[in-house]
Amino acid sequence: DQHPDLIKWELDFGIVSLLRSAGYQVVYKQHPGGVLGKSPVGFFPDDVEVVREPFETVLDKADAFIFYHTVTTVLSSALCTNKQIVFIHCGNERWLDEPYKLFCKRVEVVPGRFDEANRLMFDEEKLLKALERKPSKPDESFVRTYYFPAGSSSM
Fold first, then answer.
1. Which string of b and e fits 109-135 if b means at least 16 CB within 10 Å?
2. Please, what is the Cα angle at 48 between 84 and 103, to 5 degrees?
3. N or C end of the chain: which has fewer CB within 10 A?
4. What backbone phi and psi angles, to 5 degrees, belong to 2?
5. Please, are residues 68 and 88 in contact by the beta-carbon 8 Å criterion?
């Protein structure tokens, strides 16, 4: 079934188009899985850099990251950087209160929702405003609590 992949690609294309129209240089990290992940992305304009290498090897190419779900292995690597992270949260992932509060201290949250066609919708202006905010030193409480708890040898 290609439908979920096509919805994802439509969403990704929309986010990339929004960022480009706002003047951002876009680096798109292609997901290695799914039906459409098996071949190179060819529908973005030439000024969009599409990378297929592992996220951890290319994360220095970006100044900020945008996620619309947290069930991804690369989020951990992004959270451990000092880079800005925007999370489009549509309420489909369940969080316990305390971890979510700490997570929200680390990331900029943009509310989203699913429309009647199961497409993720969000306020584009809020996303752009989140990216415009001057990055400051990220809050480390989520990472320290859940990735490097007291007594661990790192951080």
1. ebebeeeeeeebebebebbbebbeeee
2. 20
3. N
4. -90, -10
5. yes
Please give the average per-residue pLDDT across 112-128, as a whole number: 93
- Please name the residue that has the structure tokens 């990290």: 29
- Residue 92: CB atoms within 10 Å: 11
String of b and e for 27-41 (b: at least 16 CB within 10 Å)? bbbbbeeeebeeeeb
Task: Return the amino acid letter for 12.
Answer: D
Q: Which residue bears the tokens 């009647």?
A: 116
Structure tokens of 38? 């098996």
Which residues sit opposite 84 in a β-bridge?
64
Local structure of 40: helix, strand or coil: coil
pTM of the shown model = 0.89
Continuous H helices in 22-153: 55-58, 74-79, 97-106, 124-132, 141-146
φ, ψ for residue 111 (rounded to 5)? -65, 145
Question: Rounded distance, CA 117 to CA 146, Å?
Answer: 35
What 3-state class would DSSP assign to 143?
helix
Answer whether 110's CB lies under 8 Å from 131's CB: no
Give the position of tokens 């290695």.
32
> For 22-39, how does the pLDDT look when each residue is reduced to its tens digit (9 = 90+)?
999 999 998 777 655 666
